[in-house]
């Protein structure tokens, strides 16, 4: 089918891993794309929705290893859009939840490139649904917080005391490597040591693993079960 000669970029959320959790709009964007710039955790079964002749560019990051810089990813998106290509920046989960979608959007708009965003099911929602764990429930907790467990400076500074109060519920992304520090900060802030923790590794995929623990056992479980992430 014919394509417009002016390039554009779609920031597309691929969901937590199960290809059946792709939205219809995400599937359409993949079929229309000339170029797909995808994250490390995007599986082959999701890329199967793309046209066979679409160019695939891996732009994944892996904790603790040398990875492509964000500035270089931005440059690839700008370059391909300037060539008149229909570009999909394919991200695990949702582009706006710890996916640097906002940074890429700003870089593209600064160059006058048209950008649209297709939301995806973020990991916390996909994992919770897959294991039957309500994130909010009347009489138990009435709010839910998304947290990152890692930043360029180490463990981010959250309001640990507020998070430690009874009735709080939250999901920690990218926290395997910093789990010991997170555990220590929550315990120091006064969280009940028996607070339940659910760890989901490779959520929604065939090799998904689920572990139940208490916050006081968090580090021991991660080490004892060799949890490597994504979790």
Explained architecture:
The chain has helices at residues 24-32, 44-47, 70-82, 101-110, 123-131, 160-163, 179-188, 218-224, and strands spanning 8-13, 35-38, 55-58, 86-91, 114-118, 145-148, 170-173, 196-201, 209-214. It is of the alpha/beta class. It is elongated and about 55 Å long. The strands form three sheets. The protein has a five-stranded parallel beta sheet with strand order 3-2-4-1-5, with helices on both faces. A two-stranded parallel sheet has the order 6-7. Helix content is 29%, strand content 19%.
List keywords for this structure.
single chain; 231 residues; alpha/beta; five-stranded parallel β-sheet; two-stranded parallel sheet
Rg to the nearest angstrom? Answer: 19 Å
SSE pattern, N- to C-terminal: EHEHEHEHEHEHEHEEH
Main β sheet profile: 5 strands, parallel
Please bin the fraction of helical residues.
25-40%
Distance between the terminal alpha carbons, to the nearest Å? 40 Å
Low-confidence stretches: none
| Largest sheet, spatial ordering of strands | 3-2-4-1-5
Number of helices, where a helix is a run of at least 4 consecutive DSSP H or I residues: 8
Number of E-state strands:
9
Oligomer: single chain
**Overall pLDDT, averaged?**
93
Shape: elongated
Query: Beta-strand level of the residues, as a percent range?
Result: 15-25%
Secondary-structure content class: alpha/beta
């Amino acid at each position: 089918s014919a394509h417009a000669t002016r390039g554009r970029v779609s920031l597309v959320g691929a969901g937590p891993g199960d290809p059946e959790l792709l939205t219809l709009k995400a599937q359409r964007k993949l079929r229309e794309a000339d170029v797909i710039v995808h994250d490390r955790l995007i599986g082959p079964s999701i890329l199967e929705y793309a046209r066979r002749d679409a160019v695939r560019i891996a732009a994944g990051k892996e904790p603790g290893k040398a990875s492509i810089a964000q500035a270089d990813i931005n440059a690839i998106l700008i370059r391909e859009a300037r060539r008149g290509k229909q570009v999909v920046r394919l991200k695990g989960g949702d582009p706006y939840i710890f996916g640097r979608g906002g940074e890429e959007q700003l870089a593209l708009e600064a160059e006058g490139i048209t950008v649209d965003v297709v939301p995806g099911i973020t990991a916390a929602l996909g994992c919770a649904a897959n294991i039957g764990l309500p994130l909010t429930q009347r009489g138990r907790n009435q709010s839910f917080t998304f947290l990152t467990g890692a930043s360029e400076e180490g463990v981010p500074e959250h309001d640990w005391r507020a998070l430690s109060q009874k009735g709080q519920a939250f999901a920690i992304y990218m926290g395997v490597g910093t789990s010991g520090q997170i555990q220590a900060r929550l315990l120091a802030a006064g969280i009940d040591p028996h607070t339940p923790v659910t760890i989901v590794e490779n959520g929604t995929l065939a090799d998904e693993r689920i572990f139940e623990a208490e916050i006081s056992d968090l580090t021991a479980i991660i080490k004892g079960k060799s949890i490597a992430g994504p979790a």
